[in-house]
Amino acid sequence: MNWKRTIMLVAVTALLGAFYLQWKVGLRQGGGPPAGGGILAFVPSRVEAIVGNYAGETLRLRRAGSGWREAGGKPLSGRTVDAFLADLSAVRGTKMARTGGAGLAAFGLARPALRLRLKLWGGAERTLEVGNLTMDRSGYYALTGDGVVEEIPVTGMDTVSGFILLRGHRG
User: Fold this and answer.
1) What DSSP letter does each residue of 60-103 carry, written as one string?
2) Cβ distance 49 to 62 under 8 Å?
3) How many angstroms separate the CA atoms of 80 and 168, rounded?
4) Which residues lie closer than 8 Å to 169 by C-beta, 6 or more apart?
5) Cα dist. 97→39, 84, 106 in Å?
6) Helix (H) or strand (E) holding 153
7) How does pLDDT run along the chain (171 residues), one tens digit per residue?
């Protein structure tokens, strides 16, 4: 094997390794959304249950036929919850970083202000935790279940915080 071919093989191997890390490990760069469109990469019609924590309160919703019910059995407007999920599925994140442990406190994610957990049909889950307002006040820091801190724009946070309002849309 000559030296040019060896250099070419090393370069190709390095590129394949970089692609693997970006795809498998999740070290996304450049602000693009994960596969599936939004920050949580889910299909709204595949959501079976939603659990949200905000200000010490927990709201648990479960799909019941074409509608939704709170854990206590109170019906909610199915169209309202479905519209929330459709909007949430389109929320995109930018300026991604990977951190954990003590690093989460800098983003307000050690004790997130809002936590959403979606349970999908088939057992998969998607989690979104929302922390501090960003330094330039253009968005909020959010942590996804894959351990990536992302910045969601203020308009995206309006969508996420819409979950808090669902309690007012019973039957």
Assistant:
1) EEEEETTEEEETTS-EE-HHHHHHHHHHHHT---EEEEE--GGG
2) yes
3) 10
4) 76, 77, 80, 81
5) 13, 27, 12
6) strand 148-153
7) 576 666 655 555 544 444 444 433 333 333 443 445 688 889 999 999 999 988 788 889 999 888 888 877 788 877 888 888 998 998 888 866 776 666 788 888 888 888 999 999 999 999 999 998 888 888 899 988 878 888 888 888 887 877 776 655 444
pTM of the entire structure? 0.71
CATH of the domain at 146: 2.60.40
- Domain span at 142: 31-168
Tokens 């905000």 belong to residue = 54
Number of structural domains in the chain: 2
Q: Which two tokens stand for residue 72?
A: 């206590």
